[in-house]
Fold this sequence. Notes:
The complex is a heterodimer. By secondary structure, chain A is mainly β. Chain A is about 0% helix and about 55% strand. In chain A, the strands form two sheets. In chain A, strands 2, 4, 5, 9, 10 and 11 form a six-stranded mixed sheet that branches. Chain A has a five-stranded antiparallel sheet with strand order 1-3-8-7-6, with no helix packed on it. In chain A, a hairpin with a 6-residue loop joins strand 4 and strand 5 (about 45-50). By secondary structure, chain B is mainly β. Helix content of chain B is about 0%, strand content about 50%. Chain B has no helices and eleven strands. In chain B, strand 5 and strand 6 (about 55) form a beta hairpin. Chains A and B meet through strand 5 and strand 10 of A and strand 4, strand 5 and strand 10 of B.
Amino acid sequence: xxxVKQNSPSLSVQEGRISILNCDYTNSMFDYFLWxxxxxxxxxxxxxxxxxxxxxxxxxxxxxxxNKSAKHLSLHIVPSQPGDSAVYFCAASAPQAGTALIFGxxxxxxxxx
Amino acid sequence: xxxxxxxxxxxxxxxxxxxxxxxxxxxxxxxMFWYRQQPGQSLTLIATANQGSEATYESxxxxxxxxxxxxxxxxxxxxxSNMSPEDSSIYLCSxxxxxxxxxxxxxxxxxxx
Lengths: 113, 113
């Protein structure tokens, strides 16, 4: 049973437009959500996170929105750049100390110039 | 955030052999996590490694197949034993961060032939 779901395996966007990556979760105990970006042959790198007590967190071109009632979060990238082309993973953790992250399957974003 | 050095970055191994993956962290951490990413799949937690105690394995993973060592607070190894082609994956170690989220090693791409 997948607790974190990214239902779109891929997304193609033109440079300068907005990229919206979606993520759904089923475990209401999750209290912290993260987005990671992964390039081929590299480990995932942290992008942005949001605590369950917030509904929005912004960092430069990246904004994460959390809708707890819908158990849904999204990552907005605006404006999208070709260097943003990568696999994006949504991850969640429960409140127990030292809990490992639970990941979605990832969405491959392709930004064309 | 912590910096993790993981090696080897990739290897091609014969079935029936074993491979040990090493992760070195530049700071002391209590918990380290080992993940596997099979082709087209999400990152799946294999086990949580605490220094000075037995690793805790997730459902579907056993110590005989994936023995883990954690001799000190900056180092851990994961061994993939008696390998078969189904073990071909990317293996990643991770440590929990604070403000900047969990940090990952660069990954080990294993191909079993």
